[in-house]
Structures are given as structure tokens and as C-alpha cells.
Design brief:
Pfam families: dCMP_cyt_deam_1. By secondary structure, the chain is an alpha/beta fold. Helix content is 33%, strand content 19%. The protein has 6 helices and 5 strands. Helix 5 runs parallel beside helix 6. The two termini are 15 Å apart. Bound molecules: zinc ion (2 copies).
């Protein structure tokens, strides 16, 4: 069976996230425009710095619940890394779509809005009411990817 475009990009982002070094959850992000991949990202420490898996993670040590105190972790989120990669390489992502393996947190949601990303297609849920509200207010389309579902990018 030939994958739909959404299935195709979701399969790729599942491979991207395997590079993650987060102790908690591996997350991948893929920025796409006109069916072309513009940038990829996974969560982990800044380039060249020791990762949480080597030096430990304070969020893990303090048992911080999911979705809270992001600043305690040395890692960047997958969506942030994808946006930064585009900036670093001088790639225009205005008007693009972002595929994520996990629903974006509120920090990433704000960055997605200002990066000009128009649509979020995510797989795993992540309870963050504030990021839902940010997306709603900004008029960003947010779609949950359904396995074997009808991809709407034809
Ligand atoms: Zn960490
Ligand atoms: Zn995030």
C-alpha cells in the first residue's frame, strides 16, 4: 500500500525521534511545505553539550510531573530544534506544516505561532490546555494524525 503524504511524513518523524537523548520521552518534529521537508528536530541537549542521559536530568531527579518546569532540563524540544535548524540554515518556514510525534507544549506552541507555521499534525496526546488555547487564538489548524486515516494532504 502506498502511504498517504501524512503517513509518509509521520513514518519519517518516527525515525527522527529515535535520535533523541531525553530520559523521559523521545519526540520528533518535521517541518514540511509543499510536500518538501524543510527541517527536522528531536529533543535533546544543545549541540556539543553532554546529554541528560550522561549527566542526568534535574526534572527526572526531582520527579517533576510531565508538562511542568521545562526550564530545569538542559534539553531543547523537538519543535524548537526544527525551528532553530531552519533559522540556522536560512530556510523560510513561513506558511509550513509541522508534524510532531507528541502534541506541542505551550513554549513550542508560542514558537510555532511566531514562526508562521500554519498547521500542526500530531500523533501522541499531551495534556496542555494553555497550548491548545494559544493555537486556538492564533487560528492554527491542529489535527490529530489517525493511523490508516485519510491523510488530507493529497
Ligand atoms: Zn532532561
Ligand atoms: Zn515543547
Amino acid at each position: 500500500m502506498r502511504p498517504t503524504w501524512d503517513e509518509y511524513f509521520m513514518q519519517i518523524v518516527d525515525i527522527v525521534k529515535e535520535r533523541s537523548t531525553c530520559l523521559r520521552r523521545k519526540v520528533g518534529a518535521l517541518i514540511v511545505k509543499d510536500k518538501r521537508i524543510l527541517a527536522t528536530g528531536y529533543n535533546g541537549a544543545p549541540t556539543g553539550l553532554p546529554h541528560c542521559e550522561e549527566v542526568g536530568c534535574l526534572r527526572e531527579k526531582l520527579n517533576v510531573p510531565s508538562g511542568q518546569r521545562h526550564e530545569l532540563c538542559r534539553g531543547l524540544h523537538a519543535e524548537q530544534n526544527a525551528i532553530i535548524q531552519a533559522a540556522k540554515m536560512g530556510v523560510v518556514i513561513d506558511g509550513s506544516v509541522i508534524y510532531t510525534t507528541t502534541y506541542p507544549c505551550v513554549i513550542c506552541a508560542k514558537m510555532i505561532v511566531n514562526a508562521g507555521i500554519k498547521k500542526v499534525i500530531y500523533k501522541g496526546s499531551y495534556p496542555d490546555e494553555m497550548s491548545q488555547q494559544i493555537f486556538r487564538e492564533a487560528g492554527i489548524e491542529v489535527v490529530k494524525f489517525e493511523e490508516n486515516g485519510e491523510g488530507d494532504l493529497k
